[in-house]
C-alpha cells in the first residue's frame, strides 16, 4: 500500500510531485504556459509526447463510460497507466533546459490538471501544488 512502485496511491502521488517539481524548475509561469496552449504554440518532437497527448484526449470519453457503466476502476486504471507512461517519457527525454522545454511543460501542465481532476474523482488529495 505504501510502496512507491507499482499500482499504489504513493506511486501516483510521486508522479504528481515529480510533474510539479519539473514545472517549478522550468521557471515558466503557469500563465505563460496557458497562453502558449491557447495560441497553439507547441510542436511535439518526440514520439512519446504524442502517446501522452492521445491518452489525455481519451479522458472525457472515459469519464462518460465510468458514469454509464458505474465502473470507477476504469478511471483508476487510466490514472495508473497515464502515470506509468509519463514516467517512461521522463526516462526517454529531457525537459528542463532543452529547446522543447516550453512545449513539454505545457504537456506536463495538461497532465497535472488531468490528474487533479481524476484524483478528486477517486478521493485522492495531492499535496498543495508547488
Write the layout of secondary structure elements.
Blueprint: H1 9-26, H2 30-38, H3 47-69, H4 72-92, H5 101-122
In summary, what is this structure?
With 130 residues, this protein is mainly alpha-helical.
Q: Care to describe what's here?
A:
By secondary structure, the protein is mainly alpha-helical. The chain contains five helices and no strands.
User: What portion of residues belong to β-strands?
Assistant: under 5%
**Poorly predicted parts:** none
Named CATH architecture: Orthogonal Bundle
Give the CATH class.
Mainly Alpha
Shape, per Cα inertia axes: globular
| CATH homology superfamily name | Isoleucyl-tRNA Synthetase, Domain 1
Task: Give the averaged pLDDT, no decimals.
Answer: 90
CATH topology: Isoleucyl-tRNA Synthetase, Domain 1
Q: Provide the helix percentage.
A: over 70%
Tally the helices: what do you get?
Answer: 5
Which class best fits the helix and strand makeup?
mainly alpha
Order of helix and strand elements from N to C terminus: HHHHH
Give the number of DSSP strands: 0
End-to-end separation: 25 Å
Biggest sheet details: none
Q: List the domain count as a whole number.
A: 1
Amino acid at each position: 500500500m505504501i510502496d512507491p512502485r507499482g499500482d499504489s496511491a504513493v506511486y501516483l502521488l510521486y508522479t504528481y510531485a515529480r510533474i510539479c517539481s519539473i514545472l517549478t524548475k522550468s521557471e515558466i509561469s503557469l500563465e505563460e504556459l496557458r497562453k502558449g496552449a491557447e495560441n497553439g504554440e507547441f510542436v511535439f518532437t518526440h514520439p512519446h509526447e504524442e502517446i501522452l497527448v492521445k491518452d489525455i484526449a481519451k479522458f472525457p470519453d472515459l469519464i462518460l463510460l465510468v458514469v454509464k457503466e458505474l465502473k470507477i476502476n476504469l478511471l483508476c486504471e487510466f490514472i495508473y497507466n497515464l502515470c506509468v507512461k509519463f514516467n517512461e517519457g521522463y526516462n526517454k527525454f529531457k525537459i528542463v533546459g532543452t529547446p522543447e522545454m516550453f512545449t513539454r511543460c505545457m504537456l506536463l501542465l495538461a497532465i497535472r490538471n488531468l490528474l487533479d481532476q481524476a484524483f478528486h474523482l477517486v478521493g485522492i488529495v495531492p499535496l498543495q501544488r508547488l
